[in-house]
Amino acid sequence: MSVTFDPSLCVSCGACAAACPGTLIAAGDGAPARILYPGDCWGCASCLKACPARAVRLYLPPALGGRGGLLSYGTEGGRAVWRLERPGRDPVPFPWEPEGEGDY
Amino acid sequence: MSATTLETVCHRTDVLVIGGGTAGCAAAWLLAGKGLRVTVMEKAAVDRSGCLAAGVNAINAWTGPGKGPADYVEYALADAHGIGSRELLLTMAERLGEAALFLERLGVPFHRNPDGSWASRSWRNLKINGGDIKPLLAACIKGRPAVTVLERVHALSLIAAPAPGASPGVRRVVGCVGLRLDRPELVTVEAGAVVCAAGGAAGIYRPNNPGLSGHKMWYPPFNTGGGWAMGILAGAEMTTLEMRFVALRLQDTAAPTGTLAVGQGARQENALGEDYEYRYGNTTSQRVLAWRRETEAGRGPCVMRAGYLGGPARRAIVRSYLHMSPLQALRFLEGEAALADGGEGEAPRDTAVQIEGTEPYVIGGHTASGLQVDAARATTLPGLFACGDAAGGAPQKYVSGAIAEGWIAAESAAALLAASGGARIAAAPGGHQGAGGGDAGPAAGEAAEAVRSLAERFLSGPGPVYSEADLEEAMQKAMDAYAGGRGSGYRYGLPGLREAEARILGIWRLSGALRADTLKGLSKIWELRERLVVARSLVAHLAERRETRWPGFGEYAEHPGEDERELSFVNSRLADPPLLPPEDLADHPPVTLRRSLADGRVLPAPGGGRGATRCP
Ligand SMILES: Cc1cc2nc3c(=O)[nH]c(=O)nc-3n(C[C@H](O)[C@H](O)[C@H](O)COP(=O)(O)OP(=O)(O)OC[C@H]3O[C@@H](n4cnc5c(N)ncnc54)[C@H](O)[C@@H]3O)c2cc1C
Ligand code: SF4
Ligand code: SF4
Predict the structure, then answer these.
(1) Is any atom of ligand 1 closer than 6 Å to the C-beta of B58?
(2) Tens of pLDDT along B239-280?
(3) B594 alpha carbon – ligand 3 mean position (Å)
(4) A15 touching B, CB under 8 A?
(5) Which ligand is nearest to the CA of B404?
(6) What ligand has the least distance to the C-alpha of B195?
(7) Is any atom of ligand 2 closer than 6 Å to the C-beta of A27?
(8) How far, in Å, is the centroid of ligand 2 from the Cα of B532?
(9) Contact list, B311 vs chain A (CB under 8 Å)
(10) What is each CA distance from B613 to B200, B265, B403, B542, in whole angstroms?
(11) Shortest CA gap A80–chain B (Å)
């Protein structure tokens, strides 16, 4: 339990299923992607990074301190941009602002 | 899927690498560079598999300016309270710098100082943006003509043939049988040498997080000790399983604390606001002990506190966790957003994050559990090598050490092929002759047949009352309660260990009746049984080391404190190894033995005059 798919964004490419280190996802078979073994998910975000359509989102289960937000991943101009998505709110992109070289 | 039949497809190669994780990719890369044909058998896909699937934000094994391999050896041995092999550590440490350079050349971004040198957290630790380290590593083997990558193939059993000249019962490893997860097919790979790089084992103990969050653990839940189980059943010797790794991690997400501790200077603090870290010593196990003792004394919860951090530091922390532990990064992002809204949240802004110990894992890359290997990373079975988390005897390997060991194992596998007449069995037309004279042909056929009938039995309905998940829960509960899991305060005693063993054997018998209706289901049954095989040997090791050497990782009730008579390796092997998973595991008990810390030789009268001990 911790990934969710947006069927309206999914282009059924199968990349998330190919990436999952636990082979937990079914996708690329014409139907929208879905997780077959939700209780087996490690939460590694490999499926997010594989998805070209921001259709996979990661959430933190409430037992782990989750507050109902979703994390998504995409690239903009070759750079990774993560996004915190919350119902009824504007998404918060991360990095919060452009980063300097080497600041850590 | 009722009455599924499995096709068998055969491959031949020079070297088979089981597990395409960190060490496996490094091994395959080196072998391909030597002009050998390599086959990598990987349960998932090499782009994102094993420990590195989520990424890492540091190279934890390195020797910085003014330090050398010998310093690393001393550090690792001291941290392990003396249990480790100097020779294994040194041969690994000599190549840590090369491993870091290798990663940079593959395109892994390293942080740099203003003068252009690598930015480090300490003399052993380099900062990287390693969120995509695994696909970069995989790219060095994918698409090379010499390398065949078999993805979504779960390695089920070794193929072994009688070894000419070896003592009776010792088999020569000549390949492996795997199960394809995407079509009903068994894959047999015959090879002149086999490298086991299948990682360590998570999921043996009841995990900290419950129910549907049960896999939100630190170590990858998909590393299930499969390489070890195959090795144990084939008769390979195991070492130091009793040195379990309990990680001190951020609460709930089990994310590493180093980013805050080493990166931001955060300190551990108890609920009274006291900095308690150095009350207990500074080895890895003592740091876990510190959290436990403070909590047991009612001074918990304990936190990592870094104080108020400004914007760039906060951003750096979130970014750093995004490169390694996305769930913790999400927790911080949600906390920051809540604070921005005027609410409350756990955020890097005022870092005080709760910490806790995890359930025990069994691994060879932090602690020293795994297949017994010599300096060449040869196991006790001819033809089988091991590296990374799968190989024992050398703690504190991490990413760079796993790469170094992958290279060493690969060089030794190549040397074995060269010594046996340069036999490139892949090139020998129609030849069944494995390197070194082992006759793989009939052995491969027999192994494939035996695995097939067992696998097809699991795939034939109807299912029993129990599921594989039920039995996994029973195993985890037994190990938690009787073999020193978190639920029993990491404490164990001999009567409890006997109870754990009896339960493991009972669960094994029940597992023979499990049924699956998908290939993934079959793979999950196999994973359960891999864990049971490892758990059983682990219990024998816990019973045998009659002392408490790493109190943070576990305490032996009858034997508190370190005992200098125990300054040797605890090893084990099955007296009568069945090769394939047997009907009754009770028929194949592990026998423990001791090896010298100094030179690895078997000690005739181990542990200060005691004889080798049978499993309790
Ligand atoms: C969450 C986490 C964070 C870490 N952070 C750091 C860090 O910041 N810095 C650092 O230096 N180290 C870090 N480490 C440690 C480091 O990642 C490991 O020590 C190292 O990657 C282990 O490499 P390996 O090849 O032995 O195992 P893995 O990379 O896990 O490879 C094992 C492979 O075998 C495959 N496999 C398993 N069973 C089978 C089977 N039966 N058949 C086929 N394939 C199989 C798995 O799918 C996997 O691909 C971290 C580890 C974890 C878990
Ligand atoms: S988060 Fe990781 S384990 Fe979970 S479904 Fe995605 S890729 Fe698989
Ligand atoms: S990667 Fe994204 S678009 Fe492709 S199948 Fe998965 S969810 Fe759908």
Answers:
(1) yes
(2) 999 999 999 999 999 999 888 887 788 889 999 999 998 889
(3) 52
(4) no
(5) 1
(6) 1
(7) no
(8) 25
(9) 96
(10) 25, 46, 35, 12
(11) 10
Tokens of residue B486, six digits: 């978190």
Work out the end-to-end distance of chain B between its first and last CA atoms, rounded to an integer number of angstroms: 41
Strands B248-250 and B238-239: unpaired
> Per the structure block, which two tokens stand in for B43?
């349960």
Residue B267 · residue B601 · CB < 8 Å: no
Contact partners, residue A72, CB within 8 Å, separation at least 6: A48, A54, A56, A57, A58, A82, A83, A85, A91
Tokens of B101: 């350079």
Class of CATH domain B466-612? mainly alpha
Q: Are B382 and B234 in contact (CB under 8 A)?
A: no
CATH 3.90.700.10 for domain B248-357: yes
Alpha-carbon distance B483 to B489, whole Å? 10
Cβ contact (<8 Å) for B222 and A21? yes
Q: CATH classification of A3-96, choosing from 3.30.70.940, 3.90.226.10, 3.30.70.20, 3.40.50.10860?
A: 3.30.70.20
The answer to whether residues B195 and B158 touch, using CB atoms and an 8 Å cutoff, is: no
Q: How far is the CA of B174 from the centre of ligand 2 (A)?
A: 34
**Cβ–ligand 1 contact at B511 (below 6 Å):** no
In this predicted model, what pLDDT tens digit does every residue of B563-601 receive, in sequence order?
999 999 999 999 999 999 999 999 999 999 999 999 999
Q: Quick one: pLDDT at residue B420?
A: 84
Q: CA–CA separation, A58 vs A63, rounded Å?
A: 15
Confirm or reject CATH 3.40.50.150 for domain B7-199+363-451, answering yes or no.
Answer: no
- The candidate with the shortest Cα–Cα distance to B69, out of B373, B404, B377, B411, is B404
B507-550: pLDDT as tens digits: 999 999 999 999 999 999 999 999 999 999 999 999 999 999 99
pTM metric for this prediction:
0.95
